[in-house]
Amino acid sequence: MLSERIARGVAAGHVTQAYMRWASPQARPGARVRTRAGVIEITALVEVDPEQLTDADAARAGFSTAAGLRASLSRHRGTTYRLELTHLDRPAAPEPAPVALGEAQRRALKAQLARLDLGTPRGPWTRQLLELLRQQPGLAPAELAAAQQRPVSRTKTDLWRLRELGLIDTTGPGTRLSGLALSYLDAS
Question: CATH for 4-87, among 1.10.620.20, 2.30.130.30, 1.10.630.10, 3.40.50.10700?
Fold first, then answer.
């Protein structure tokens, strides 16, 4: 019932709600759902009007805007329900090792990212994507695409470009920043 994106977000602590569309409620308060990210409890279930959702509601559900959340809900039929979620056990996620970033390396990386930003008609995107991954580590490309309201194929291309620079780690589940990316963001 809960997607891996939602489960990872609840486990990481930045997702506290999920929105579902069902013909009738498919969950109940107090229900516990076992996921790969651990056990998640549904603490409340409330029917809501999707047109009344705010950006704050969207943020609690792991979306950047209410429009993005509504777009995700529009793919399904039925009544919209808000599920309040809490994580009952949290497996530890390994942190990337810090990387010593010299001034010359930081400048070179900044220039490479600026070239990527200039190479698209949408304008600067690299820092936005890196910050999104800092806030929500472990997201899958499809989840990143939904959060940015972009096609999955283009999001995968963006991730590939950042991975080629050593900024993205895809060795574990989901997409995470490398130690180099964290050092770069902290130094910028």
Answer: 2.30.130.30
